[in-house]
Amino acid sequence: MLYKVKLKNANENVLLDADVYEHLTSDKYLVKVDFINNLRRHSSGCAVFQKTWPKAGGGYKTETIYLHKYIAEKFLKKQRSRVKNLVGALNGNKLDCRLENLAWRSRSVASRQRKTSSKVGYTGVYKENKRYRAVISIDRKSVHLGMFDTPEEAAHAYNLKSKELYGADGKINVLKKPLPKRKGPAPKPRRGRPPKVRR
To answer: Are residues 94 and 140 in the same domain?
Structure first.
């Protein structure tokens, strides 16, 4: 069974497995602080519980619990290792906290999976004049993959190379539009001048 929990500060829901929901609503401490009803959307896109408590000697302290990390530490702790010590969402949705969607990752994998800063909206895709360049980082160097007519074609080229290089740990762009239908085999990308690599 799947549970949807409404966030306090956003019109969005967190997705939880039944076992996880049962734990969050029965653990003595979490019930005491009304954890399940005080989840908020953090600026990073994940769900977080934050509460400020007065200190005995004066002043205040803020308690912060990131939901996806808490769940992984409680239910997926055997998958954690010295290298894989960061929690990520396999489908990129940090509010999808189902166990099948959470995984421990290394810092390098987490870096590849982070949200893109590209104005086009796809990792590794940049607009140049009326066309789109696809690039991917290999050993901290930008490698040119080709020039394409649409951002989706460039994103698809990035996805193929990412899967080839990194397998399941590679970043995969979710295409906002389907690839254009073409008759016959797909054309090879037209090679533009590769960008200069900063060393």
So the answer is: no
CATH number of the domain at 67, please.
3.90.75
What is the extent of the structural domain holding 144?
116-199
Residue 77 to residue 45: CA distance in whole angstroms: 23
pLDDT digits 0-9 by tens, 42-88: 988 899 999 998 888 888 989 999 999 999 999 999 988 888 888 88
Q: Are residues 137 and 90 in the same domain?
A: no
Give how many domains the chain has, as a whole number: 2
